[in-house]
Amino acid sequence: MAIGGDILASALSGIAFVSCSLGGVGGGPARRREVVVNGRRVKTVDVHAHCTIPEAVAILGLEVEPALRLSDLSERIAAMDAQGIDVEALSINPYWYRAERERAAELIRLQNTRLAEFCARESERFVAFATVALQYPELAAEQLDYAVKSLGFRGVSTGGSVNGEELSEAKFHPFWRKAEELGVLVFMHPQGTAELAAAGRLDGSGLLTNTIGNPLETTIALSHMIFEGTLDRFPGLKICAAHGGGYLPSYAARSDAVCRTFPGRVGPLPKKKPTEYLKQLYFDTIIFTPEGLRHLAAETGPGQLMMGTDYPYPWTSTPVDLILETPNLSDEDRIAMLGATAQRLLGIKG
Questions:
Q1: What DSSP letter does each residue of 104-153 carry, written as one string?
Q2: Alpha carbons 58 and 43: distance in angstroms, whole number
Q3: Residue 94: is the preceding peptide bond cis (ω within 30°)?
Q4: Positive or negative CA dihedral for 59, 19, 123, 42?
Q5: Chain-centre distance of CA 85, in angstroms?
Q6: In a domain, 201, yes or no
């Protein structure tokens, strides 16, 4: 198994980053772009940025396979400066969900410690989401409690499922209960739809395992959490779904319609219309076009959106401009998306 990205350990912190070539980054340091909305300097936060800890990866004997060119911390900061990103909220895509308990505990302990150390050293530019061994929900709850109370994390990252099990299943309630109790932001990043990949439906051109599979898994995960009552059971959860929440926000009214059309097949019915839960969730802005982002804001409310880049993967190189160019947003809407909402949820100082 390989972990995506071209990795180089930072000598300072033991953390490794991956990077891509961005305009204005190569050939020397880029001038730091300052984002201004109606004369007001805005602190921008990227809620969706990837990294890895090589020491933790090594515990499972895995390789960090180069997918993009080598980088170091200075190059990542140069890319942030060029894009106008003041702070990155770092997350690690789960690769440890099949690890046995003792190794998973060791891996998470090391991984969270290194993330916390790095963010303490680079506090002006980075915060991070804690990691947990969600395949062991009770352990994950303990890990989250320690990460928040002892290491200072203000968020936690998860996959969109755990070894084929939906996050809405009762076995995961201890984790959701702890996340609600602590009031931390949960960043949910998909891992694709392995069941479709195994059937060959996503073979062929187009990297459909990612292009379609990743947003589809998020759509499935959120739909289960709505229809299986997870969001009713834990109404204080703060979940940010990657990639604009997948396909759910663009077609959520069908979820309302199924409650009317086939009420006998939906039960017990959720306490609210499924579309109303969109205003209980948060979403990143990796949606690609101003019209797409305008529609997402109309469906969810602009206060539920936070800027994301998917760094270092070059899905979008102009996340700030996407928000600035989206129609029908107020200045306060843009400020919220660019950073104010993430600042509030992650406890980032202004």
A1: HHHHHHHHHHHHHHHHHHTTTTEEE-B---TTSHHHHHHHHHHHHHTT--
A2: 36
A3: no
A4: negative
A5: 16
A6: yes
How far is the first Cα of the chain from the last one, in angstroms, to the nearest whole number?
Answer: 40
Q: Is residue 31 part of a domain?
A: no
Using CA atoms, how far apart are residues 79 and 19, in angstroms rounded to an integer?
8
Asked if residue 18 belongs to a domain, the reply is: yes
Question: Which secondary-structure segment (H or E) carries 221?
Answer: helix 213-227
Q: Which domain holds residue 98?
A: 2-25+40-346
Partnered with residue 97 across adjacent β-strands are none
CA-CA distance, 214 to 323, in Å (whole number)?
23
The verdict on residue 34 lying in a domain is no
Q: What tens digit of pLDDT does each residue of 267-324 get?
A: 888 899 999 999 999 999 999 999 999 999 999 999 999 999 998 888 988 999 999 9
Amino acid at 77: I
Q: How many domains does the chain have?
A: 1
Per residue in 106-134, pLDDT (tens digit) is 999 999 999 999 999 899 999 999 999 99
Q: What is the CATH number of the domain that holds 298?
A: 3.20.20.140
Distance (Å, whole) CA 79 – CA 311: 9
CB-CB contact of 62 with 103 (8 Å): no
The sign of the dihedral angle between the CA atoms of 19, 25, 29, 32 is negative
Whether the link from the prior residue into 312 is cis, omega within 30° of 0, is yes
Q: Are 67 and 18 in contact (CB under 8 A)?
A: yes
